[in-house]
Amino acid sequence: MYAMVARHLTPPFRMVCLTDDATGIRPEVECHALPDIGCPHPERTMGKWRKQILWDHTVPGLEPGQPALFIDLDSVIVGSLDDYFTYGDPQDVILARNWARPMARLGQTSVFRFPVGGNPQVLEGFRADPQGVADRHGFEQHWVTHAVKGGIKLWPEAWTCHFRLHCLPKFPLRYFMTARIPRGVRIVTFPGGPNPDDVQDGRWNKMVPAHRSRWEHLKATFSGERVDKSRWRHLQRYVLPVPWIERQWRD
C-alpha cells in the first residue's frame, strides 16, 4: 500500500497504520496500537465494525481537525490520488458509492476521507447500542452513511470502482476475456471478494491452489472441488489471470 501511494501521490504524505501486529511492515509506515472499540462487538453481522474507532475524538497518529484518507488494504491503486485530498471541503466526509445498491445513496468505506475527530457521534452512537445499530443497519458503512452530521458526499463515479462489478467481464465472457481497468479509475476495490492476490494468479479464492483452465473449472462444478457450495455461483466465479494487479500491487 505504501509503495502504491508513493507512486501515485504528488505531495509529501504520512501513512499511519493501526494494528495489533506491526511485524514486517516497512519502516516508512507509522504503526500505532489498534485501539479497543470500547464496547462488545456485534454478533450475527458481516459489518467491519472495528473501523468505527476512526470516528473517535482522537485517532492515534492523526492530527485532530485535519482530513485523512482511509484505503482498504485489499485495494489496488492505478491512478493519481492527488484529487482525493483536494475534492470538496476539508470537513466533508466523502465515501465511495455502494455499487451493490446503486439506486440508494449509500456510502462504501473501502475508500473514504474524513476530518479527524469531526464526527464523534458516529462512534458514540454505535457504542450506546452496538448490537442494535448492527441489527438495524447490517454493515458499518450503512451506519456511517446514516450517522455523519450533514450527510456524506460521494466521490466522482469514475474514480473508484469495484473489481467484481466494474472490471470483471460479465459471465460467461470472463471465461475468455481478462479483467480490465475502466477509463478514469484511480482505485480498484475488492469488497466481498475475490481478493487481489488471488485474481492476479487467475483463481477466485484459496480453495483453488492455482489457475484452472476453463474446462477444469467447468468439470469442478460436479465435484467436491468447487469454489462455492452453489454450483451456479461456482460457474460464475471464474477469472483469468489479471496482469495489471502485479504491475501495481508491488513494492
Task: Please tell me about this protein's structure.
- This protein is an alpha/beta fold and 251 residues long.
- It is built from ten helices and nine strands.
- The chain has helices spanning 2-8, 82-86, 120-128, 130-137, 140-147, 163-167, 196-200, 214-220, 231-236, 243-248, and strands spanning 16-19, 30-33, 67-71, 75-77, 94-97, 107-115, 153-154, 160-162, 187-189.
- A four-stranded mixed sheet has the order 3-6-5-7, covered by helices on one side. The protein has a three-stranded mixed sheet with strand order 4-9-8.
- Strand 8, helix 6 (163-167) and strand 9 (187-189) form a beta-alpha-beta unit.
- The longest helix is centred in the middle third of the chain and has 9 residues, at 120-128.
- It is globular.
Oligomer: single chain
Average pLDDT for all residues: 94
Round the Cα radius of gyration to an integer and report it.
Answer: 19 Å
Strand order of the largest sheet: 3-6-5-7
End-to-end CA span: 8 Å
Order of helices and strands: HEEEEHEEHHHEEHEHHHH
Structural class: alpha/beta
Helical fraction equals 25-40%
Characterize the biggest β-sheet.
4 strands, mixed
Number of strand segments: 9
Strand content: 5-15%
Tally the helices: what do you get? 10
Question: Which runs of at least 5 residues are low in confidence (pLDDT < 50)?
Answer: none
Q: What is the overall shape?
A: globular
List keywords for this structure.
15% strand, 9 strands, globular, 251 residues, three-stranded mixed β-sheet, alpha/beta, four-stranded mixed β-sheet
